[in-house]
Amino acid sequence: MPDDSRFEVVIVGGGIMGSSTAYWLASNPNFQGSVAVVEKDPTYTYSTTARSNSSIRMQFSTGLNIELSKFGIHFIKNAASYLATNDEPPHLSFVESGYLFLATTEAERRVLWANYAVQRAHGIEDVITLEPDDLARRFPWLNVGGVTGATLGLRNEGWFDPYGLLQAFKRKARSLGVTYLADEVVGLRLDGRRITQVQLKDRRAIDCAVVVNAAGAWSRNIAAMVGIDIPVYPRRRFVFVFRAEKQIENCPLVIDPLGFYFRPEGEFYLCGMKPPADLDPNSHDFEVDYSWFEERLWPLLWRWVPDFAAVKVQRAWTGHYEYNTFDRNALLGLHPAIENLYFCNGFSGHGMQQSPAAGRGISELITYGAYRSLDLSPFSIERLVHNRPIVEQYVV
Description:
The protein contains ten helices and 18 strands. With 396 residues, the chain is of the alpha/beta class.
């Protein structure tokens, strides 16, 4: 029988980041070690991954986020070549309908145009700028009153099935020998500056050489087990699914300057909004506040789409961002305090689209001690120690 008391690598968290990292390790012929993934919620009922909107876009303001998404869209479009098992391809249901970012002031327009220039510099040729008249002709259902400009992704942006991608990563990783343990990590044993053992809730202990913190919205708790404080907190996000009395055509994912968004979902639509700072507490609560739709979201729906004057909420759910309050970007790699604890946290709502590149990057650090494909070192967790935030304009 296999020895489940020791693994070369123990990954804490079997969501999208943990399963991506496990897949990339196990699929690399240069990595010869054993891998265990510990997931406390194997049904993924309360998983951040399963409750995600699962969208992907090229429209970021920082080059590295753009590069992460470039590989992400390549991976999603070619998932069959990476993740098929027993000749069965994964089913990700990718809808390539683009993102439409709206500006309502001249300052917001300048930001959109500046970010567009960054995207072009990184080889993104399928994003266009739109003046209000162009916008009205392309989307006649949109109320362009007060709009000063917009940017639209024509290709390589859209949304997909988050659970489908997660399960595809997991199935492929298991087929390559990765062990998934349905348990909870309750402690990490230190010997000097190295973790030597992972302690589980069922009182087992696993010896290990490397630990990966991929615990998502719970990652701060894992870091605290070895005395490291990371600024990653759970932030609730409500998602509402509604039916409109009148359908609209050719609808991308629309985002306004307040962080309000909506997009089609089959015969329905879904929408949500980034809360203002004073209404965005740290919380693991899964309760949905339905007044949020009536008081805040529906007036914005009607403002942007007059045909949405008559809508009816069908259902709603709460998911959580693993929100990095330092700069809202990923925290990756080794922390100076611990020699063998790798972080893959703090994606602040961009984890699904960045999971293929982030998991690959962490696997390269473990295997080679350096990034081999895409240099993710600017997102090193060491920037917390040196107080070097990275500014990303487009966090929704």
